[in-house]
Amino acid sequence: MSNNLIDMEETVTHTGPKGVINDWRRFKLESMDQQNLPPAKRELLRQMSSPSKSRDDTRANLNRKMSVQEYELLKEEDEGCLKKYRRRCMQEMHDKLSFGPKFEGVHDLDSGEAFLEVIEKEHHTTVVVVHIYKIGIKGCEELNNCLDCLATEYPTVKFCRIDAVASGAAERFSDEFLPTLLVYKAGELLGNFLACTQHLNEEFFATDVEAFLNSYGLLPEKELPGMDDEEENDIE
């Protein structure tokens, strides 16, 4: 077996029952504050993760049964570490399943050409939400504010807005049809909601717009919160 293949075997995350245990063991060791451990435990930790062992010894060490001393060491404060480990595994899975670009904020389109370009040239996996508005029309400003919030919650969705006059289709999108939400993916129109605020309460918020779009299955799953956010919630 080549050295490259051996290295690959040592770095890959295992998915079988034994592999999950070994992956958890490595994560636990890496997460522990070794400097504050008692000398005896620190020495045990050194023996468990010594980099001086040969590849064969390392592979055998990962696949052996856990000793009583190791178990006592690893089980301490497991709850907090287990949450971090679970979050890391979920994030790794989410990253593998997430494709396409990410965006920041709502994009302002200044012309009909820019409108067509964002629809036709965006990545085929990207959902594009376009708000057609007009200053002074009831609900347009509120919807713009809602999309600002949703853009932070859904970075893989491209949220855009364009003034009806700038779009070159002011006749088609007259005041009575505003605000309008158009949803595209891979150049295909998935949602066409004229005067969309009629589907919402008079006073509406970002969560209401989110629920409305989700009722048609137009939004992807939200990004996972970072580990730091989870840790802060645990502290609270």
From TrEMBL:
Task: Report the protein name in the record.
Answer: Phosducin domain-containing protein
State if Kinase is listed as a keyword.
no
> What family does the entry list?
Belongs to the phosducin family.
Keywords in UniProt for this one? Phosphoprotein, Sensory transduction, Vision
GO CC annotation: what is one? Answer: photoreceptor outer segment
Is NADP one of the keywords UniProt gives this record?
no
Task: State the organism named in the record.
Answer: Amphiprion ocellaris
Domain Phosducin, residue spans: 7-225
Which GO biological process annotations does it have?
regulation of G protein-coupled receptor signaling pathway; visual perception
Q: What is this organism's lineage?
A: Eukaryota, Metazoa, Chordata, Craniata, Vertebrata
Q: Which InterPro entries match?
A: Phosducin (IPR001200), Phosducin-like_reg (IPR051499), Phosducin_N_dom_sf (IPR023196), Phosducin_thioredoxin-like_dom (IPR024253), Thioredoxin-like_sf (IPR036249)
Name the segments for region: Disordered: 35-62
CDD domains from the UniProt entry:
Phd_like_Phd
